[in-house]
Amino acid sequence: MRVFLTGATGFIGSHIIPELLAEGHQVLGLTRSDVGAETLVAAGAEPHRGDIEDFDSLMHGAASCDGVIHAAFDHNFLNFTENCQKDARAITALGAGLEGTTKPLIITSSTAMGSAKPGEPAAEDVFAAHSPNPRVASELAGQALVERGIHVSAMRNSQIHDTHKQGLVSDLIELAWQKGVSVYVGEGTNNWSAAHVSDTARLYRLALERNEAGARYHGTAEGAISVRRIAETIGETFGLPVQSISADEAEAHFGWLAAFASKDMSASNTLTRERLSWSPTGPTLQADIRAMKAGA
After folding, report:
1. What does pTM read for this prediction?
2. CA angle 54, 27, 169 (to 5 degrees)
3. Residue 118: pLDDT band with limits 50, 70, 90
4. What's the rounded Cα separation, in Å, for the pair 115 and 94?
5. How far apart are the first and last CA of the chain?
6. pLDDT tens for residues 250-277?
7. Phi, psi at residue 105, to the nearest 5°?
8. In whole angstroms, what is the distance from residue 186 CA to residue 244 CA?
9. Which of 17, 111, 237, 245 has the CB geometry, 3.0–4.6 Å to 249, for a possible disulfide?
């Protein structure tokens, strides 16, 4: 299968490329720069010039391939709402390139979209279509394409990690370094979910090959890791004190991260495992945080 991959030079995309190539697929990778093109060629992929706001480029890339994985996203959380809308527009453009076909389009979302109510683990067969979380725009765009007969499925990611990046946990680590203390809110009993990037890359490939319109999968190997445990692991690893603060103090300490710091982002992966025969084998989030010190 010839696969159009957005976010091809990004954290997850750069791991998806060798996963696809190892299974005999070809990769056409989206890139904005000459450096990105060189990186893709070195990785064994073919470059396709453009970006996620170049809708003609997205349409043509999708139309020229047998399937699409949309892994690109602008992770500037200061412009989170607009970036989610931008993602929805990109999904619509990719879908236009697949109109009238049964080619698979795998979009990327968040496990938060599978949470029926606060504090309840997200589930694959739940879609919180009226969620106030701006990320809902991606799945709404995907759902609109499914209603037009396009084979869209959603990969809902959690904290995707290795020893270099860990999703929002990377921001917690950076903040702990800046402030000299690793912090959690209240009792820190709210849980986050996580998966190693190698397991996540395999999951994208499996979802692409399954090609089930309307399916939702969770990129989650560990479904419930307390934020207190994460904060304590950061403190132990980097020799920083660990402290609880009140909810009233959270915004002053965390800034934009305050919206996530006390939120429960646990998620189930039961249906994902069953439907894709997926068995994650990568290191845990805590293991990767601890391994950071060895590589520092």
Report:
1. 0.95
2. 75
3. confident
4. 27
5. 39
6. 999 999 999 899 999 999 999 999 999 9
7. -125, 115
8. 6
9. 245
